[in-house]
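Tokens in:
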């Protein structure tokens, strides 16, 4: 698959992504701007999924497997896109019903038509709304949210705890504000091993 983007567009996309993940602009505003730069067609998304192998952060498969073996439901709550996240979820044995992410919209011929702004994850505070809904629907007494961005921290509360994650990127605002910050999923697995 060939994706063409001018250097100027790439630099702008990178700038907007960093700004959004740092919590300096509303997520919906950043998402709209980034998608307008990328302008993803249905064909581009399909080719991307087909030609890009899912890459996992070391330790995530083991962590998810341990949680699931203990009867813990694992959810993927993301500002990314359902169609791109679903293959990874499948490999992690996480059912599609446990994915809360944005959905791209396309016109009949496959041209980009925007995104579904009714998805809670399409705006700032949306991850917290998902957590609130999960707690209400299933009666969870303890719900822990793990993430690396400002929009992840917004989920606590209503999440009962937030664990900052720096295994892919360290965002200083997340590291400073998280009560517990880890650099690898192995750290979480080790803590779970202590409680078994």
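Residues out:
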């Amino acid at each position: 698959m060939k994706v063409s983007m001018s250097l100027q567009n790439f630099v702008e996309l990178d700038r907007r992504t960093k700004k959004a993940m740092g919590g300096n602009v509303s997520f919906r505003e950043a998402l709209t701007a980034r998608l307008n730069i990328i302008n993803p067609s249905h064909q581009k998304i399909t080719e991307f999924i087909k030609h890009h192998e899912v890459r996992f952060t070391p330790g995530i498969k083991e962590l998810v497997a341990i949680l699931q073996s203990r009867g813990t439901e694992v959810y993927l709550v993301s500002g990314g896109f359902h169609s791109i996240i679903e293959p990874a979820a499948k490999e992690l044995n996480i059912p599609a019903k446990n994915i809360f992410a944005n959905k791209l919209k396309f016109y009949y011929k496959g041209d980009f038509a925007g995104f579904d702004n009714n998805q809670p994850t399409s705006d700032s505070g949306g991850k917290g709304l998902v957590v609130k809904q999960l707690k209400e629907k299933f009666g969870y007494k303890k719900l822990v949210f793990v993430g690396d961005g400002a929009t992840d921290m917004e989920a606590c509360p209503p999440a009962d705890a937030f664990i900052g994650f720096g295994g892919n990127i360290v965002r200083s605002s997340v590291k400073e504000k998280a009560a517990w910050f880890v650099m690898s999923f192995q750290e979480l697995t080790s803590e779970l091993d202590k409680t078994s």
